Each structure stands twice: as C-alpha cells, then as structure tokens.
C-alpha cells in the first residue's frame, strides 16, 4: 500500500525529534534533509549507469544502515557516505555527523544517529515505488520540512525559504505557463536560498526548462542543489557566492565582462541589505548595473538587487522580485532610481502582500513585476493591494489558496473592476504623485465605516441608505425587503416584525427559500459531471492534475453567483483536499479502488503489542455504517440515549439526597455494595430512606443492563462493519468514496457557507433595528422618569434632590 502524504510528513517530522533540543533548527535541518536526500537518491538512482547523480560504491543508504549501533558511527558516516557522495556530485558544506557539540558524545551520539537512520528505514519510505510521475511526493515532503524549519528557526534564520504560496503567485504572474517555452528557456534566481522559488517557476512552466541559481550562504546553496535533485531537476546550475560582488553567470565580450541574460528572473533578496556594497564600487561596476538608473544608497540594497535583475534580463524578459514596501516611497537616491525605472516602462505591476508572511521578517513586502518586452508601449502600472487577504497561522500569516488565486486572476487579466483591490494607474497620475508608488495613494483598501445616522438616532427609523447597502439580498429576494421593512417617513423605515422573528421571516420567505433551493440545484449541476470524472479515475492518474481540474471547474461554476463568493467556495474544496482528499487520491493512484482494513497495533515501553482495533484509510467505519447498517446504528443511538437519561436520573437522585441529613450523606462512596449494605441495615421504620435506596438500586441495575447492551450492540456492529469491507465491489467503493465521503462533505461545507451568508443578513437587520429602535425623545423621557423615581426615593429617606 502506498504511503499517505500526511504519514510521510509525520514520519519525516518525527526524525526531527531525535535532534530537537540538541541544536538550533537551522542546524538540525541540515542533518534531516541530508538523510532524506541520501535515502531518495539511493532508492531512485543506485545501480543506474547513466543516472544524473552518482552513488559511489559503499556510499548508499543501505551502507549507512550497516553503521547503526557502531561506536564510531558518526566518523564512519562522514568518511564512507558523506565524503564520497559529496565529492562525486560536487556537494559542499554537508553537515558533520561526528560533531560532538551538536550530536553529543559516546553512547548518546550512537543512539541519536542510529534512531535517526531507523526512521528512514520505514518500508513505506521506499521512494522508488512511492513516487508517481508528475506528482512530486518527495519534493513536497522536502518543502514541508523546509517550511517547518523556517518556522522553528525564527526571524534570524528563516531567510532560506520563500513561503510556497508567495512562490506560487510569482510563478504564475510572470506568465511562463502561457508562454512558448522549451528546454532552452532560462530561469534565474540570483538569491535562490534553498531553491523553492526556482522550482515553483519550473513546475509552472509545465515542461523542462534550464534553471540557474546563486546563493551566498554555502550550507544553503548545498540544500538548493539537493532540492533540485529531489525535484527531478538534477541539471540545474546552483552556484555559491555573492551575486552582487561576484556574479556566477557571466559572459566575455572581448575584454568586457557581461552578465548572462535570462528569459525569466525571480528573486526574494535579503530585505534592505546594509552590506550590499561591501567589496563593490557601484560607480565602477564592471557589469554597468547602475549606469542607467543610478547607484542605490550604500546601506539600502533593495534597488541593487532589482537593478541586477533588470541587467540580467533579455530584451523580452520577464521578472518578479519580492522587496520591502519602502522601495515604493523612499526618497533621495532611491526616488531617482524609481523615477527612471517608471519612465523606462519596465515596471508592469506592483502587488502589495500582507504583513508577517515571511520567516525572516514581519514587515510587509511587495512584488515588483518587470516586463522588458512591452516596456515601450506601457501607459501605466497595474497596482494590486492584497494586504487583507490571508489567514493567521500561529505567529505568522499565510496566503490561502483563494488569496493566491484571486491575486493571480486579477493580475493576469489586469482586472480593475474592484477598485479597492486593484487598478491600472496611469503614468500621468503617478507623475502627479512625484513618482511615489506607495499603494495607499492609489488604492483605498480600507473598509468603509459603518456610519451612524444622527436623524435616525434622534427621531427613530432605520435609514434607507443602510437598507440599500444590502442591495445584493434584495436583488435576489426583492419582496423580502417589503416583508421586513415598512415606510416610517421619507428616507427612513421601521422593522415590521419583532426582533426575535427576523430569522424566521427571512428563512421562511418564499423567495429566500427559492434562492437556497436554487443554490442546492446549482451545486448538483456541478456535482453530476464531476462524479463521473472521479469515478472514472484509474491507478496511475495524477492527483495534482485532478485537483487543479476539479477546483478550477468549481471556481468557474460559482463565478457571478449572487451573495456567495466563488473564491470562498473554492477554498472549501482546497482545504478538504489538503486535509483528507489528497491522501485518498494518492492511495487510489497507487493501489486502485481498494478499501483494505488493517489492525492498529501499539507497543508499550516493554515492547509488548496491544491490538487497538482496526481502520481503513479510504473508507471509515462511519461511512460503512451510515450506508449499510443504519438500523443497527439507530438502535445503538437509542440505547445510548436511554443510558444517558438513566445516568442523569441517578446523578440527580444522588445530588438530592447527599445533603447533611440525606440518605447518602454517610456513605464514603455511592456504589452498589454500599447501597446494598445500607438497605440491609435500614429498619422497616425508615420507609422513605428505603424507597430512595431501592430507587437508586433499580436505576443502577438499569444502567448496568444498558451498558452491557450497548457494549454488545457496538461489538456486533463493529464485527458486521469489519466483515463488510471484503465484500465491497469496486462500484460500491466508488459510491462510498465519491458520493458519500468527498462530495457529501463538500456539499455540507458549501451549505454551511450559505448559512453564513444567510446569518449575515439576519444579524445585520437585527443590528440596525436595535441601533435605531429608541429615538432621542424616548431616551429623554426614560431618563426623566428614572430621575423622578430616584428623587422620590431620596425624599422618602429625608433628602431633597436639588
């Protein structure tokens, strides 16, 4: 059986537990990732004569396993595994597996490394079998680890990783997916870190391209090389060194040095690098990067990287660079560079991102999009403010799938139909603002204030403007407005139903009921063809391609639907894919439509095994029970309800008679034995006490009988459900997985979205009704009445209020 992605990630993350605490995450990531790399290349390339990576004899993962438990395991790993592998493949700065400061000494080091290797021995981590074409399971696992290492490393050491969602935005907005490309198409990242941004662009290209990257940190550049191999890009050229002072990719033209030019350039350089000019005189730059636009300030390197990118682009090249917001509005030398860039027409667009997205900093950043090809005819810059679209995840913010899609859609279509989100800004307007590109000057993304109507507060009545602000609802249900509101005076309305009846009035209104029914039908219109697609899946299909196709179809299906945001619907599917459906898809892609059960065996500290029941990854017991054993489950539910009532009655009886003089007051513990003994000791004259005791005794017997019956019923149902799995046909498995599990869950999620939309209207109408229900004269009268009552009470106490 193929390993689930979630289990793969869990297994890899558990390897970190062996090292966590002994060193910083930015250090132990190197050990874990190197082991992942060695395991992968050993499984995939060992013994292949023309493999893109060489596995020297004696330097594979199996040879590492043979070193487990040896007292000199660390030294042997360095000499027999790491050194030959690094030398054969030009991998440098790999971690020291014999470092006592990080791994401990003596037996501590032996056990730590032995346990670490054992985790990667898991038979399920056989990457030669578990990896499907076009579905980069290992690459995804690597990215999963990098993301978590970046989180754990904190602000100072998280720069080696660009969040996957931001990388995805960049990969799509530069247009490589829509361009005519070939293996000669070149993509370059001058500050590539671990290479995640480069790989996202390569993935978006859809066909092999040539990758180039340079990274200043030697250890991180080693990670980038390994990352390229893990993602099936072993020919990518990753150089180590300072891009600004010593660019690795250059050409000779006579006696002159030139930067190599690329089709696409992407980058996430260090923000506001204060040492960018160390070892470099901008006025004597041999590559003339600052000749046209000017030299950046000595202690503000953002434009240095951007100008390097522009110089590295072909005349028809495209680029995108992540920079801090300051580049949009800072003055002096940067203002002049910005003015010249704008006048050259190189800047196609600017995308403002939410704050706190990046692991190296919490400040907000933006993406500057460069397009040389169409610079001459450019009339303006497309600006997009996506700062409000994110979800908070722990201490950081994260772009959701819907946020990424919305950014990409608006930018690629140059769609400025939502001016609070995006708009095309002319060069004339920019020049009037002195070439300041700060987004708030051009896009007012602030939420409109909920205005308080003075006349409404003074005279009562809900303002017409507030009611008309709900025009989306009235467009769908025009008669609902007249059912809720009636005219008070010109421009003001009264609520025609009680506040407690608002929800009932809305939900029972024929037009609203019709709207909800129509939305259910709308989902079914999408579900029918998608059901056929899902049930037609055969082993070997590509899960990533599948989710792209059905998610895009869902998004398009809900475009322009009233009251509901298509991107919110899209997010429900993407969340479900990540949490559940993705694992199911990979299981089916590898093993077909099988619903195999397995026993859950746990080991205690002494190694003794204990059976904890059974499970099935694709089809849960609950799905089987719901479809085939509804009567049995109903019986269990009834007995459970009876048991709950009986237990509650017993608890009430004990509470009632546990006071100081109560029947149970003297009992240390209320149980069957104690009650039986009390009945035996009680005399005939204690009739009331005996009645209570016998009532408790009867309830206890009933409770015991119900518990026994419940246990028997649950065991019987468990046995029936377990026995059902081998009898399931492929048609039945598809029905359970597709109809009951996947699409049933998605339908419930979208229904919940409709409930949220409906509840929003209910709450808003109630809020408006409460806001203006008590006008000023009424408040004044009430205050006067209360003041009179207070004066009257004071007078009764002999005090006259002045």
UniProtKB/TrEMBL annotation:
- Domain named DNA methylase adenine-specific: which ranges? 135-450
**Which is one GO molecular function term here?**
site-specific DNA-methyltransferase (adenine-specific) activity
Chain segments annotated as coiled-coil in the UniProt record: 696-723
Q: Which family does it belong to?
A: Belongs to the N(4)/N(6)-methyltransferase family.
Q: Which organism was this protein described from?
A: Pseudomonas veronii
| InterPro entries for the chain | D12N6_MeTrfase_N, DNA_Adenine_Mtase, DNA_methylase_A-5, DNA_methylase_N6_adenine_CS, Restrct_endonuc_T1M, SAM-dependent_MTases_sf, T1MK-like_N_sf
Q: What is this protein called?
A: site-specific DNA-methyltransferase (adenine-specific)
Q: Which reaction does it catalyse?
A: a 2'-deoxyadenosine in DNA + S-adenosyl-L-methionine = an N(6)-methyl-2'-deoxyadenosine in DNA + S-adenosyl-L-homocysteine + H(+)
